[in-house]
Amino acid sequence: MKTGFVSSVCVASFSIALGACAGTPAAFEPKAVSADPAHEGYLSRIDLQLLADAVPPPPAAGSHIEAADRALSATYRALENTDRWLMATSHAEVRSPFALQHFDCSLGVRFDPGQNAAPATARLMQRLFEDSEAASTIAKLRAHRARPVGDDPSREACQRVSDSGRASASYPSGSATVAAAYGEAMAAIAPEHAAAARETGHQIALSRVVCAMHYPLDATTGEALGKAVFERAAATPQFQTDLALARLEYASLKASGKTSPACAAERLALSQKP
Predict the structure, then answer these.
(1) Considering the domain 46-270, what is its CATH architecture?
(2) pLDDT, tens digit, 9 for 90 and up, residues 111-134
(3) Which of 95, 147, 88, 36 shows the shortest CA–CA distance to 266?
(4) What's the pTM value of the predicted model, to 2 decimals?
(5) Three-state secondary-structure class, residue 93
(6) What H or E segment, with its residue span, contains residue 246?
């Protein structure tokens, strides 16, 4: 059922409940890539290249797989301007520390970036963001697949998209890669909520499909890459040090008893299907 919410903005009543909108999302721009970009993640350039090389190529143009992927993408137009659409607008923000709020309900705490409540967790997520973005960007350089909003200029996105953003590569989804890595990290931080944390990561990835920024296969491939990034990052001593500190922060947040008022709105939004 359509709700009448306006896309690309955090409508006041919902954003207050959701608690995760960091304002109107910035216009989507493709990221610049250099031959040797500055990198502050857990993984080496060699690690990132190996991860990217393992990503399968996108579906061939005109293939049955591509046709099925496009058809599935089209079904998500039913969610335009619904609560799930507005949640997807919020999920467009995957940078740390703002993205921590997406996991408030699945972990039963309240991450508040305005209060700098979890600096070690934010640092861990930022390093995973760097690794995930780099791996997905390297993979995108091998083959260009257009985005849904690029293939169909009439397709509405739930964030502002520049012309260069519409024309940028879609496969694999960088945001889905980040989201899956985040989900795995939150599962490691709060093992008792592992399934819920991973589901939140999946829903953030799915939001890119809802937003028409990626085809479904772009997102699922990105999620697989994100899990691989996490697995390799988790084997590093630096990650294990950061994880221990993040677990202490989580225990402190849990002991405080603070939770997010967004959870009822989140459950409602997630109940909406195409």
Answers:
(1) Up-down Bundle (1.20)
(2) 998 888 899 999 999 999 999 999
(3) 88
(4) 0.88
(5) coil
(6) helix 237-256
